[in-house]
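Narrative summary of target 7.
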Amino acid sequence: MVQHRPVSAAHRLLSLDIVLALLALAGGLRVLYLAAPEPALPTEAATVAHVYALGNLTTFADAGGAGVSPFGWLQLAAATMVSGAFGRSATATAAVRETVLVAALAVTVLSWLLARRLGLTRWASAAAVLLLAASPLALGLQRLVVVEHLAVAWALGALVLITRHRARIRHDIAAAVCLLAAVLTSPLALFFLPAAGWLLARRAPARAALVAVLLNLGLGIAFGPAAGALRPHLAAATHPSVADWAALDPVWVVLSAAALTAGLAVRTTRPLAATGVLLAATLLVPGVPDTAVLALLAPVTPLLLAGVGQAATRWRGPAGHRVPGNAAPAGVGRAVIWGLVPVPGRAGPPPAGVGRAVIRWRSLTRQRVPRRAGPPPASAGHAVTRWLYSVRHGMPGKAASGGVGRAVVRWRSLARHKAPSRTQRTPASAGHAVTRWLAPHRGSATPPTPHPAPARRARATRRRRAVPVLAAAVVVVAVAGSWSHGFPALRPAADRGGPLAAARDWLRANASGARLLVDDAAWAELANAGWPTGMLASPAACAAACPAAEWAVFGTGDTGLRQHYPALDSAFAGAGPTAVFGSGDTRVTVWRLGLPPADPAAPPEAPARAHAGEALTASARITPAPEAAAVLRDGCVDPRLIATIAALAAIQPVGVAAFPEVAGEDAAGQPRRRVLLTGGEDGVTAFYTGQRDLFRPASVVRTPGGVLVTYPLFAPPGLLVPVG
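Modeled conformation, tokenized:
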């Protein structure tokens, strides 16, 4: 395990400053891109609906393929209830995404702690967390509502507890609970168990057995008697795919693939690399959702990159080339003692013992080994040097052995010759070491071969240091170029509501209280807006026959739903699109169900509207604005407005300022049913408020720009004389 040294208060404050800065960066970017429309995950809406239903103690059945995670839904529902996110956010999806954002910040802190406890330096840890906090790929992933974000937070928490210095039983029990929570949230978290077991076995094998027993007990209960309430299932594999995500940050993907392989060769990162390789291998399994796997893999690969980079900068070549000349090779076991000399400013013999007998080679170049009276102190199983004693007692060429570790250091040359200069750091002793300095010169007075000239060593050192600096510069430039492409691809939306919120507002104004047939996304949005859940029917209710409904609200996935639920086809018989919001994958369509079938013998209405509109623009009593005149000539005005404007013109001159569009209706091909009239506003108001039956408007409102008249949807046929 990593050796822990006391940390000063200044270093603790520096670490705290770094973590707070990284948290501010991660949080700010995730808030900015919280409502980014792309990439979109089809199963996200079902998770949001389940969370809302669980938090409001109601029932919901999704259309299928969204996966099952009761424990994950419970965590999200509890967080949204405590924070009041549903009442504060613009949409239900944004409310649950706030909780996912908090989980992402927790992952940021846990990544820092895990990096430090694995032995990464402060700046290597900061680089790993910075990559996770600012990568466009991580931003796109960690804004989506997938339970794997919660699972990876639990898994990292377990690893942090396992790598804790001087961990006690309570910490290991807490780690077992965290691992159990991670697996119950997402079954893919099982791939973190090898890393947890590996790290725990390094520290305390007996504790590893305890954690394994507790974890098996919990999983046995969760997947046995409590399987109906706790057992999770993966969602179906849908877009976006790995290629879609990789397009946001291709350099990170390449570096991550290299780090997964190289991490297996570094002792510090080997357990995490094993987990990363297993997760990456699941991407090749058909049916496994790529987004879920990447959500678990995203915090792992930056740690591997930082660990591999740190190991590469500290590597100084093979052991045979590390120390030229007759320098002492590494000993048997785990420790090397390069020489023993008195510590300056300190009386008595040099220290010896487990982990403490470290004497830098450089000091040997500045002083001779002094004469010592009596034998040197023996080591009980660790580094002991007794060569000087043998020399003083007339035993040249024969090393005095001592200590359980049989540590032998030849001191004759130290007493007669200057030791060669050393610039390498001396490793610490951990016991049972054998250091054989100047083995080829046993019993000989020939001095060792000196080291290369200082100038050559300095040039070699500069070259060795330049390589990692150049590699780091290349990586930084490549990552910056990758991010410059990935950030614009996310496109944060200025409208936090989106098409679904616009459809919700349209339904409130035109179909309030009606029974609706909705998809998963619309169910969560309308239920959060206060629509009675008893008036909302999901596609799952159409297993045999759809319940009676007046309207339907579906996104772009209605074709797949109709194939899965054939009863939807009968419900959409005779339906017509009334309003369309958004475009592409985010398009939402509102359908009017149960419309009477059109009379095939009836003439089309559009030519009649265009002919009547042309007549109105030619009237001397009507003064339309240029835009309003164009709308009239195109035949895009409701026939009730055409008829009433013609009647009003017979009473008084009429000014038509505009035919304002009702949001979403132009895209659905509906005629415009609002008009803004100017001039003689008192007469206009009295005229329209006095209309009856078919020509009675839905509202007449006086505004600073004139009188705004709005008619309800669906004008009855036959109000205009057909053309020809």
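Confidence is low (pLDDT under 50) at residues 319-448.
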